[in-house]
């Protein structure tokens, strides 16, 4: 089985959380180190609000991005310690999302899409759409052709 790149998974999943924590740290530093003027309080409020928006983005994205291992007969979705096995007959669609270097997987009977990264980078074709030339991409082409 070919597993998606775990480094990209962890970076993409936690990127907005790190930015939110950074914004909240800046807001706290402004609030406690500078004199309580109206300008400083507004600056701290802006950083706190921006951090809150980034945290909401993190909560949305962390539910959609999963780690995936792909084999000839099945797909394994790794969600924390749980592994969900999906047969290829249960897959409704599997497409590359343009510009983001990831795949979108739709499973029959499930409302939510699953997004995952390929095993290696997707080479851009004409700067717009991508083509996966990794082992995972070759396997997906073979499976989709059948």
Q: What does it look like?
A:
The protein is elongated, with a radius of gyration of 20 Å. It has helices at about 5-35, 40-65, 135-145; strands at about 1-5, 65-70, 75-80, 80-85, 90-95, 100-105, 115, 125, 130. It folds into 2 domains: about 1-65; about 65-145, Roll (PH-domain like), CATH 2.30.29. The protein has a 4-stranded antiparallel β-sheet with strand order 1-2-3-4, covered by helices on one side. The protein has about 150 residues and is an alpha+beta fold. Helix 1 (about 5-35) runs antiparallel to helix 2. Strand 2 (about 65-70) and strand 3 form a beta hairpin.
Proportion of residues in helical segments: 40-55%
Strand order of the largest sheet: 1-2-3-4
Question: How many individual helices?
Answer: 3
| CATH fold description of the largest domain | PH-domain like
What's the total count of β strands?
Answer: 9
Count of separate structural domains: 2
Show unreliable segments.
none
Shape: elongated
Describe the secondary-structure layout.
Elements: E1 2-3, H1 6-33, H2 38-64, E2 67-70, E3 74-79, E4 82-87, E5 91-97, E6 102-107, E7 114-116, E8 123-125, E9 129-131, H3 135-145
List the defining traits of the structure above.
3-stranded antiparallel beta sheet; 146 residues; 9 strands; PH-domain like; 4-stranded antiparallel beta sheet; 2 domains
Give a brief outline of the structure:
The protein has 3 helices and 9 strands; from the N terminus they run E-H-H-E-E-E-E-E-E-E-E-H.
């Amino acid at each position: 089985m070919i597993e998606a790149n775990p480094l990209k998974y962890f970076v993409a999943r936690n990127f907005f959380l790190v930015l939110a924590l950074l914004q909240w740290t800046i807001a706290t530093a402004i609030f406690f180190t500078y004199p309580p003027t109206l300008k400083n309080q507004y600056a701290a409020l802006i950083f706190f609000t921006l951090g809150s928006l980034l945290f909401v983005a993190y909560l949305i994205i962390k539910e959609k991005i999963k780690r995936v291992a792909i084999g000839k007969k099945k797909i394994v979705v790794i969600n924390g310690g749980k592994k969900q096995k999906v047969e290829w007959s249960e897959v409704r669609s599997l497409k590359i999302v343009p510009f983001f270097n990831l795949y979108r997987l739709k499973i029959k009977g499930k409302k939510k899409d699953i997004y995952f990264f390929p095993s290696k980078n997707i080479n851009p074709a004409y700067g717009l759409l991508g083509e996966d030339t990794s082992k995972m991409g070759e396997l997906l082409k073979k499976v989709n052709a059948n």
